[in-house]
Amino acid sequence: PDLSGENDAVVTVGSLCKWVLHCYTSLSQTRGDMHAHPCLLITAGPAAGKTTLTSKLILELKATALKGPSLVPILVRGQLWQRRLAEHHEIFDSAWNWVDAFVQVEYRTQPAIVRMLRQAMLSRRAVLILDGLDECGEFRCHFERHIRRTLVPQGHVIVALSRPNGLDDACFRAFRRASLQPLSEEQQRQVLKKRLPEAAADVWRYICDRLPLDGDNLRITSNPLMLSMLASIAEVRVGREMPKSVADLYQVATDAMLKRAKRQIDPTSEPTVRNLDKLLRLVFMHAHRVGRRVINSELITAAIGSDAPWLERQIRHDLVPLLSMLQTDPLEVQAPHLSFQEFMVALAIQDDATKLPVQSLEKLDAFWANVIRLGSGLGEQFGNAIGERLGLLLVEEIKVGEPANTVACCAALSAVMQSTSAKVKTLRLSECHIDDAAMKELFAATQFKGALNNLK
Question: Domain residues for 394?
Answer without folding.
Answer: 360-368+385-454
